[in-house]
Amino acid sequence: MSRSNKEVGGYRGRRTITDILRFIAVLLAVVVVVVLAGMFYLQRYVVYTDEGAKLELPPFLQFLRHSGEKPLDSSVSPPDLGNVSFVEDPSGSLSEPGSSSEEPDPLPPAVPGFVMELPLRDVTGGLAAEKLEAAGAEGLILEMKDREGMLAWHSNQEVAGRANVNGEASVNEVLQQWNQGEIYTIARLCCFRDNSVPYYRNKMALRQGEGNWRDELGLRWMSPAQADAQAYIAGLCGELAALGFDEIVLENFTFPVGERTSRINRGENYDSARFSAELEELLTQVQTVVEPYGTKISLRVETQVLENEPLSGLSVDLMERFGVRFWTDHTGLLRLSALPGDIPQRVVEIVPQAEENRSQFQAVIPTEEE
Questions:
Q1: pTM metric for this prediction
Q2: What is the number of other CB atoms lying within 10 angstroms of the CB of residue 273?
Q3: Which residue in 349, 266, 249 sits closest to 300, CA to CA?
Q4: pLDDT beyond 50 at 25
Q5: b/e sequence 34-48, b meaning 16+ C-beta within 10 Å
Q6: Which of 333, 332, 192 has its CA nearest to residue 256?
Q7: Rounded Cα–Cα distance for residues 337 and 334 (Å)
Q8: Residue 98 lies in a domain
Q9: Mutual angle of helices 227-242 and 275-290, in 10-degree steps
Q10: How far apart are CA 9 and CA 212, in angstroms?
Q11: Are residues 117 and 25 in the same domain?
Q12: pLDDT number for residue 40
């Protein structure tokens, strides 16, 4: 007796439990591979703060969190400099005043030399002058290189191109036009604490074992002893001077300090006997490239650096020779006030006013007459 077509057709279309399990296993394997690849790619953007781990994305992925907004600072007005105020959150990135859900602290009274920080979009969007005037500020501070290594402008440095840290090219022209005005401009530049360049250029990095060394915040550092790293920082300072900035504040320009430094590989990139000499080489290069533009170089000196002078490489001699001003907190002010020479008269005290998720810093810049 022949079988019916119905019986044959039904048998061929049937799926077994084994087929279903095999499909699920393949699907799970694909998901695991994608997740692992994503974690490997994004791990370089994970930053550890006092509040726990945070994800700080690069500019081309910022829309995932901040709709493409970039942080920025402000500058200062010409010769007579008084109070300065800018906003910086505890993790080091910048926030626009009033961005907190709570009412922001009132701005300090308008005085000669008062300056404030604004996001870059206010400069590129033409709102900076209006906001400065409304606040009674005479100047603007701009963060031009953050601790992730990201630049607010487009640099011609080969290292910046290879490490994918450049900002938009259109920003350069806007900054150049802005700096031609009457506003005294200060650029903040985070030097060797750089979470991007060492990832692409291991030769320039401080190393731990077979990988890049990371500080207490989980961030990589370029080696201050590495010739290419010194040339990169000096080159960036030269570009900022050419863009018309009146003053550049170098941050994290020393060797790192802290307990985790004991894990750094010793050698040419980390030789304690040469720390001071290497910083002198860097500061000499920076001074040379900005001198034709009349740009001042100031140093942000953290209290921890002052407490670990041999480990940082920074000396009183280097400070006196290369720093126009020294930005520090109250504890640092007390230490700097005890130093010889005119260093105490060149100190900028940064006073934080606590606020949810950020701190408003207010400082006093010595006048030229002082």
A1: 0.71
A2: 6
A3: 249
A4: yes
A5: eeeeeeeeeebeebe
A6: 192
A7: 5
A8: yes
A9: 30
A10: 62
A11: no
A12: 65
